[in-house]
Specification:
Layout (H helix, E strand, L loop, with lengths): L11 E6 L2 H12 L7 E5 L6 H12 L13 E5 L6 E6 L8 H4 L2 H6 L3 E5 L12 E8 L5 E8 L1 H15 L2
């Protein structure tokens, strides 16, 4: 018989979370690994748990204040306590067209010195950098969520490897 092919290719990871608390803890692990320039895209239906996961990322990253949904403000700029680094949290749900990203200064956010979390990234897909970690969150039932992570680019692939090791061991 031939060599068995892996179920997932390099740069991909699937995880099942059994509770909102576990989803938040996964976010904490990812947040602790973020660096300036990292772009995290959180995709999924309403109520899938994007903001819970993003809040965990903020805790792990060291945000001065808890991350909450930026649905009505569209973008929140968080500062890390230790080094004043920035973490931008965007919610593109209300965008009607890609050009709406200009109104929040999306290009400036990407060019800045912080990490970026984007909820509803499909709304501005043509503007998303190729180098990114795309996370699709799916509702399995009332408490369980499926996280499918897809890294594109060297830094994002390294981030995914670090996250996998942090979460499951080497």
């Amino acid at each position: 018989m031939g060599e068995a092919l892996p179920i997932l290719k390099a740069g991909q990871l699937d995880i099942i979370s059994h509770s909102a608390e576990q989803s938040g803890r996964l976010g904490v692990r990812l947040g602790a690994l973020l660096r300036a320039g990292d772009v995290i895209c959180l995709s999924g239906n309403m109520g899938a748990g994007k903001t819970i996961f993003a809040a965990g990322i903020g805790r792990g990253w060291g945000a001065k204040h808890p991350l909450t949904s930026p649905t009505f403000n569209l973008v929140h700029d968080h500062t890390r306590v230790t080094d004043k680094q920035h973490l931008y949290h965007l919610d593109c749900y209300r965008f009607e067209k890609v050009d709406d990203a200009e109104a929040i200064g999306f290009d400036d956010i990407l060019a800045g010195s912080g990490a970026v979390i984007i909820e509803w990234p499909e709304q501005i897909a043509p503007l998303i950098p190729i180098e990114r970690l795309w996370i699709e969150i799916r509702v399995l039932d009332a408490t369980r969520r499926s996280f499918s992570l897809d890294a594109v680019g060297k830094r994002s692939e390294d981030l995914l490897i670090q996250f996998r090791e942090s979460t499951f061991g080497a």
